[in-house]
Amino acid sequence: MTNSLPLLKLTNHYQNYDWGTRDAIPRLLNLPIPEGGVPLAELWVGAHPKLPSHVSNLDTSPALDQLIAENQTAILGKNASTLKGLPYLFKVLSAARALSIQVHPSKAQAVEGFARENQLGIDRNAGHRNYKDDNHKPELMFALTDFDAMAGFRDPSDMSNTLEKLQLDAFQPWIEKLRNDPINGNPINGNPINGDPVNRDPINGVSAIYQWLLYLEGEELKDIVHQVLEACQKLEGSPYNKVGLLHDLYGVDCGVLFPLILNQFTLKPGEAIFLGAGIPHAYMGGTGLEVMANSDNVLRGGLTSKHMDREELIKITNFDQTGSQVQTGKTTNGVTKFDIPCPDFQMELIDFSVAQEVFGGISQSAELIFTLEGKVQCQGESFVPGDAFLIPACCGEVSITGGGRCARVFTQIEAD
């Protein structure tokens, strides 16, 4: 253990999920394309034990999670005991096709669920395990290219109008229920300000059709999917065209119907969306920066062959219709800040053609710098696109200069 460390230059690694693109990430960042021709879905930058970065400028190139465990105060600062490790994970994500529909728990739900599954003796790597750790997983997606996503429920009137255009008898009961659905509803538990889901009365139209879709199976599911596909062919534009695209990828799956009930987004480069606890979402295609709390807790709701715990999924879903909005950030002197209502992580984009000098290390905890364009300098080192370095707390404030553009990620978690 040491109280003195230099800037930590990071070597980062790809996740080769089958939905990834072949070369979008290295092409955007001018990185070499790894051999093998495998999909390059995500470049992970951080200390998650599943795929930690390695520190290339220290002897033995230690894994970042191991180095932090051995030097907690030097790297994480005075709040090291509260943080219990690097509290965020940064990714460059590139999707050639739609990912599964996902929902992430709140912090309280993750703590309870993780303890419950431990008590039941469920192996942490078991395919049917819901909670891999005791942390929440809010996330921000920032688009580097046009980026398609669906996230959060449409408001009841919009949803009923969308379904009515299909002119299908199967949806009539839900259309009527949605028309009688109070848009603001009456929460029966949860606090959206703290990131806990707002679970409404079970007769609420949004929650009712969501549960109905999740539990469709067998011949009934097959019949309804085929009816919807036929109806969508007569209608133009989103979300109707998305149903066919998802069916081409996943076949008969309840998730192919979710464009009808979830908001559709096409983020332009420079736009972002924050996804808090309980918001159903699926990334459909494109390349972007994703920063999140350091967790692997995912409950799936369709477009997947993996385990789906429908009961637990419904329990943690947020039925509030105000949970996801596109944002462009607020820029002052070349530094763009985003509205991220989560202390685990904050992200800024720094344009050094405007900001001549920026000081890193001001959070007094570990700060991650990832270079996107051009070149930046810090403590005599130069960093080009795709390069990343961590500023340990023991370095204090350091000057960053250059002519490029980079992302800065830090935490606002304070000691208990």
Overview features:
single chain, 416 residues, alpha+beta, Phosphomannose Isomerase, domain 2, Jelly Rolls, nine-stranded antiparallel beta sheet, eight-stranded antiparallel beta sheet, 23 strands
Return the average pLDDT rounded to an integer: 92
Describe the largest sheet. Answer: 9 strands, antiparallel
Backbone shape: globular
Low-confidence stretches: 184-203
Rg is 22 Å
Short description:
This protein has 416 residues and is an alpha+beta fold. Helix content is 23%, strand content 26%.
What does this protein structure show overall?
With 416 residues, this protein is α+β, with helices and mostly antiparallel strands. It has eleven helices and 23 strands. The strands form four sheets. Strands 2, 3, 5, 7, 8, 9, 10, 11 and 13 form a nine-stranded antiparallel beta sheet that branches. Strands 4-1-21-18-23-16-15-14 form an eight-stranded antiparallel beta sheet, with no helix packed on it. The longest helix is centred in the middle third of the chain and has 15 residues, at 218-232. The protein is globular. Residues 184-203 have low confidence and may be disordered.
